[in-house]
Design a protein that fits this description.
about 230 residues; alpha+beta; four-stranded antiparallel beta sheet; 4 strands; about 5% strand
Amino acid sequence: MTYFNIKVQEHINKLENEKLKEILFNIISNYCNPSFSSITKKEFDIIIFNGLIELGFLEKDLYIYDIIKKLRVTSQKARNLIYEYNLRKFEKEEKLDELLLKNLKTPSLYREVENIYLELENPLLIDRLKYIIKINGGSATDASFSNTLVKLKEDAFAAIVEHYSKRNGIDIRKELIKAGVLDSDLKKFSGFITKLIDSINDMSLSEIFENIINMTDFIKDKIKEIR
C-alpha cells in the first residue's frame, strides 16, 4: 500500500459507520447528478476532495502546503482545488465575509513600515477582498513574491474598515464627525484612518482594526486626541 492509502485507511478506521455511509452517499449521489458519469473531471475532483475533508484526511482550514504534501499536487492545483471547493461551499457572500473577517482579526493582518499586508491561503477570499476594496473606492495589489500575500494601500485598508463597519451597523464617517472630526479632514478618509492607526502603539494592527469597526470607547477617545 502507498503512504496515501495507509493514511486514508487510518482515517476511515477512526470514523463511525454512519459518518462513513454519509460520505459514501454524498460521493455517489453527486457523481450521479444529473445522470451517471455526466459530470466533468473537475467536478469529480471536487467531490473526492470534499470527501477527503469530511474523512479528516485533509484539514478543514485547507492549507496549501498540507494539500501539496498529502495529495502530491502542484501549488497551482492545490490553489484551484481550494478555490473551487470554497466557491461551492460559500454560496452566500455573507458567509465569505465572515471567514474573511476571521482572518482580519488574526496576526495575518500586519504592518511593515508604511505598508499593510494580509496573508490569505484561500484564493477565493483574496478575490472577495479585492472586490470589497474596489466597491469602496480602494485598491490592492498582490505582493510580487507570494500568491498568498496581499499588499493593502492606504485607501484599501480604509475601504475594508468602512465595509466591515457597515456590516456592524455603523456609519463610520458619521461616527467620526460625532467624535469631533471636521468634514474637511474626512475628505481624505483613508489618511485619517492611517493617522488613527499611527496614534496607537500598544496594539497589533488586527486588534486596532477590530476596535475601529466596532467604534469602541477606546477608539473614540483616540479620535478626540488626534482630531
